[in-house]
Amino acid sequence: MAYPGYDGMWLPSDQDPRMQMGPTRGERECLVGYLEHYRQTLALKCDDLSAEQLATKAVPPSNISLLGLVRHMARVEQSWFRRVIEAHMEIPRLFQEEDAGFDLPAVDDDLVRDTHALWQGEIAHAREVLDRTDLDTVVDVHGEPTEVRDIIVHMIEEYARHCGHADLVRECVDGRAGQ
What we know:
Number of domains: 1
Largest sheet: 2 strands, antiparallel
CATH superfamily: dinb family like domain
Structural class: mainly alpha
Oligomer: single chain
Number of strands: 2
Distance between the termini: 18 Å
Mean pLDDT: 89
CATH class: Mainly Alpha
Protein name: DinB family protein
CATH topology: Four Helix Bundle (Hemerythrin (Met), subunit A)
Radius of gyration: 17 Å
Strand content: under 5%
Organism: Nocardioides alpinus
Number of helices: 5
């Protein structure tokens, strides 16, 4: 059986930006490394697709699309890093009225660019927050004291779950699947 891509892989290992890291040292580097890996994975799943393809809801009856996943993850990044870790709960959640980002307005190249820029902006902010925040820092999560390390583990889980969704959607859109 012939597989799309490189023997069923998304990219050759020597070209995969996620495989360029060496072994991690310590808890922070390990956790941040996994989070970055999954952020890059979602970005790779969206590469080389048109606005229409990114908006395709490929697994009925779900309304999940690749663009919806990116919008949703911008919301998740904003919520955990700005609203919870920085305690700016007054900031309205992104896409509050739009099914957490999955309901899409009319999709065009501008929406794709704006969505990607929003997501990357939230990631950049999250990186800054992590750079200055100790993993032992305790924040309030719905009245429960929670260490920042637990939030990072949750972010890894959130991305990993949604990257699985992205893999299925991408395969339905153009047959491409893999690591």
